[in-house]
Amino acid sequence: MLTxxxxxxxxxxxxxxxxxxxxxxxxxxxxxxxxYRNLFREQGKSDQEICDKLxxxxxxxxxxxxxxxxxxxxxQDMAYIKDIGNGDVRSEGMSYGMMIAVQYGRQAExxxxxxxxxxxxxxxxxxxxxxxxxxxxxxxxxxxxxxASDGEEYFAMALFFADGRWGSTSGYKNYRxxxxxxxxxxxRKEKDNGGIVDNxxxxxxxxEKQVVFVPNGQAATFTDASYHLPAFYxxxxxxxxxxxxxxxxxxxxxxxxxxxxxxxxxxxxxxYSTFDGKPTKPPWPSTNKSDNFQSDAFRVAGNIxxxxxxxxxxxxxxxxxxxxxKFFANQKPKYVSGYTVDGNPVVDYQATxxxxxxxxxxxxxxxxxxxxxxxxxxxxxxxxxxxRYYDGMLYMFGLLHASGQYRIWAPRKK
Length: 414
Fold this sequence. Notes:
46% of the residues lie in helices and 4% in strands. It has 414 residues and is mostly helical. Strand 1 and strand 2 form a beta hairpin.
């Protein structure tokens, strides 16, 4: 018997699918057509099997036992997503959890996460007002005042989608107003503060029109390719209350940046780049941050494929996705989840989140190897154990993309 969630999801699955991959130079353009490729169905999976796969991920990662889940309810109306391995609650995870909840149609969980983030993470006063502390204790105590740019991007996009799916009301549930406020702060922090106060800076470099790694000091002088989300910027160029021309330019700039930052042979991206696409290391000591392709960079292929599937503005995205997937397909005995950008392995493991993003990349790929990456995600176990947070979030994103369930929910007309 189908669970309620399965019934809700399977209704969406019966939307007419695109039966085959779009050829190079063309795109499904989901924004215009309302159609989304179902890669799992293209590989012969039934609607029932796909629903079961989606439900199993939700049940384990959001409703599982204390040692299975990453979603933890607090009281009657709040919840947080926890990074189990690092022992904190991150704006990345909270915003990802909200995006997953809106795509699954789970408003109660969405509202719980959003209320926790707004209550504990979002600065309500001072120079950082409107930004979200990127790391908190699960008690809600902020571990740092600084934001990380991907959190704000996903918070805003998830809130716009929530308005489209459920409509806005008042207070923290006025989703569209909250989204517009976040976008305002991202671009106008310095203006609102009358300059740079307490080193609080804009989240997008106004000259480069690129997202910065962290809007604080030296961390605002470079970028992270996985934070570039041209598909989101295209929607903000249509929906935002302010700065629509800037968001349109930012989308075009990110597409150009992707070309500059990709290695011409391997297609790999570094975790961190200068604004002109050169690999860079962050200016602080760390054993985890590098100019290699590692955990942050997993997401770039998914960002590119989402942009291509939704808008189809740049045929190069097909070429790039093919290049990247062929590189991984040629690694023997299997690809790992860390390389120098020219293709030398630097780790000996394969992360499920990486597998998931390569499957999502298949939305744009036309090479014959693409179905192998879709099937690899289908066969991957639901992430568990110490590192289930990041792998689990990307795993769920991968499932949503590959099943045609990661969708655009246009805001309600005012």
